[in-house]
Design brief:
The protein is α+β, with helices and mostly antiparallel strands and about 70 residues long. The chain has 2 helices and 3 strands; from the N terminus they run βββαα. It has one domain (about 5-70).
């Protein structure tokens, strides 16, 4: 499986999506306050997205999303 990251982090209402490349279905989707809280807590940082996203980054985003759904 391959995934694509669609993100616009520098706007007033930022968003970040991890999309399954074959189907176009978003599997992780954060926007607005939810995403800003992740930046403020240090869970993710903008520097993570400066280069071409690695498989490791995709895995970390999946894990972070799973952990937060359990809370």
């Amino acid at each position: 499986m391959t995934f694509l990251i669609d993100a616009w982090l520098e706007r007033s209402n930022p968003y970040l999506k991890v999309i399954h490349r074959s189907t176009g279905v978003p599997v992780v989707s954060w926007h607005g306050e939810t995403l800003l809280k992740k930046f403020q807590s240090g869970s993710i940082c903008a520097e993570d997205f400066e280069e071409t996203p690695s498989q490791e980054l995709i895995k970390e985003l999946f894990l972070l999303d799973c952990l937060e759904q359990e809370v």
